[in-house]
Amino acid sequence: MSLNQIVIIGAGPSGMMAAISASGAGANVILIEKNAVFGRKLLLTGKGRCNLTNRCSLEEFLKRFSKNSGQFLRDAFKALFNEDLIDFFEDRGLEMRTERQQRVFPVTDKSSSVIRVLAKELQKKNIKVCFSTTVKNIWTDEEGRVAGVSLSDGKKIKVDKVILATGGLSYQFTGSTGEGFKFAERLGHRIIPLRPGLIALKTKKKDLKVLSGVALKNIRLYFKAGKKEVASSIGEFLFTGFGISGPLILSMSGVVVDWIQEGIGAFVCIDFKPALSFEQLEARFLKDFKASPKKSIKNSLKDFLPKCLIDIFLERSGILPDKRVNQITPKEREKLVLLFKRFSIEISKSLPLEEAMVTRGGVSLRDINPRTMESKKVKGLYFAGEIIDVDGDTGGFNLQAAFSTGYLAGKNAVI
Ligand SMILES: Cc1cc2nc3c(=O)[nH]c(=O)nc-3n(C[C@H](O)[C@H](O)[C@H](O)COP(=O)(O)OP(=O)(O)OC[C@H]3O[C@@H](n4cnc5c(N)ncnc54)[C@H](O)[C@@H]3O)c2cc1C
User: Is the CB–ligand 1 distance for residue 12 below 6 Å?
Assistant: First the structure.
């Protein structure tokens, strides 16, 4: 076999980019995908609009990944970062637009156009793609070097290099069913337990169900479990039929899932007035109550809260809705302030991993060389994308990680 035979397993964003970057001189690249089409999960991204990447700085970018996984990605981002990725698509005729919080989307507002550019590039580079083919096994030679893959149709391919880009374990109908983790484990890699990330949370009590569909803006959340407390930034929040969601919940859900798994009761507290201190808020109440002393508390709260929340606030505070504000006692006022600043909701669990936007855990970072994406256990085996134990925030971070690790793995597999 004279050519460097590279097999890439999985035609999601990481596998497609790996194939494009590996198709350099002297390599014979085969991309194997179990579905009949490219990037079924990619098609769903950004609600069908594909939040491709984020234009924040490298240092900010690295902070948006959980634990030390940001640092692990430094070399991959050095090889291909946000502006490189944007240029890649714009050079091929797909313009990008930057939206709030530096999120980048194609101007077409369609993830299908991102897939089309990648598919065209694969075709231009004459990369062989085997659709509707599932890789069943990867085998190694006596020296422990990757040697071949066996396929669902019974065929076997001898290889010099394999790039494993099979994704995570959520939205399994898209093809991300987790075989890659099994291959990696069988070949001696440590798999960090798989958990849901960027996921909505279920609440214990059902009394907030009436609020289903209510969205809050400009609030801050405090996540609490035992003595642990983490504050979110200011942002948006959504009550749902089963519990709570919205950007702030999704971003912090990974931490909460870990707390719940540790068996610590977890709570989220809403700060409805993050711009005001407890004292400032109390002063605001006093001023308002003085200005219209005969108003009922129920009516007075309309200036402070969405209407649908007023009954719940009054019920939790134990204040009668028709009580006049000039009769509100200091203790009751204190209770109201506390509800505004720390409206507490007990969390029972998250939705299942299947519904997560990203899988946390995966092939341990200790078993992968971050400079090349090559396995430290099996020579000639590389990893790319969500199969690696990296997970980022919403905002385009996960796709950039998939493209960057794919690019780096592809580049190094050719050598
Ligand atoms: C609803 C939703 C919305 C999202 N939106 C965004 C967003 O806007 N921005 C963002 O940055 N991230 C987003 N993400 C996350 C992002 O989609 C993933 O991080 C990304 O797709 C991971 O890419 P990947 O190539 O590693 O894996 P995947 O996209 O999962 O691709 C893996 C591929 O491997 C194939 N495969 C698996 N096993 C085998 C096998 N044995 N043989 C052959 N083929 C196999 C699968 O069929 C699949 O096509 C979203 C995720 C979801 C679920």
Answer: yes
Instruction: Give the pLDDT mean for 155-175.
Output: 97
Q: CB of 254 closer than 6 A to ligand 1?
A: no
Q: Are residues 218 and 149 in the same domain?
A: no
Name the closest-CA residue to atom 13, ligand 1. 45
- Examine the domain organization and report whether 78 and 115 are in the same domain: yes
Range of the domain at 317: 200-350
Residue range 263-290: mean pLDDT, rounded: 95
pTM for this predicted structure: 0.95
- 26, 173: one domain: yes
- Tokens describing residue 245: 């969601």
Question: Is there a single domain that holds both residue 224 and residue 303?
Answer: yes
Domain count, the chain: 2
Pocket test for ligand 1, best of 21, 176, 393 (most atoms within 8 A of CB): 176
* 27-32 and 128-130 beta bridge pairing: parallel
- Do 317 and 273 belong to one domain? yes
Residue 386, ligand 1, Cβ within 6 A: yes
For residue 412, give the 3-state DSSP assignment.
Answer: helix
**pLDDT value, residue 101:** 94
Beta bridge partners of 225: 228, 266
Q: Which atom of ligand 1 is nearest to the CA of 53?
A: 11
187 C-alpha to ligand 1 centroid (Å): 22
pLDDT at 118: 98
User: Are 245 and 211 within one domain?
Assistant: yes
* Tens of pLDDT, residues 84-129: 999 999 999 999 999 999 999 999 999 999 999 999 999 999 999 9
Within 186-325, strands assigned E span 191-197, 201-203, 215-225, 228-239, 243-245, 266-271
pLDDT, averaged across the chain: 96
Residue 1: per-residue pLDDT: 45
Strand 4-9 vs strand 27-32: parallel, antiparallel, or unpaired? Answer: parallel
Q: Are 269 and 326 within one domain? A: yes
Ligand 1 centroid to residue 168 C-alpha, Å? 7
* Domain CATH number, residue 8: 3.50.50.60
Query: Which residue has a Cα nearest atom 34 of ligand 1?
Result: 10
Asked whether 197 and 251 are in contact (CB, 8 A), the reply is no
Same domain, yes or no: 261 and 404: no
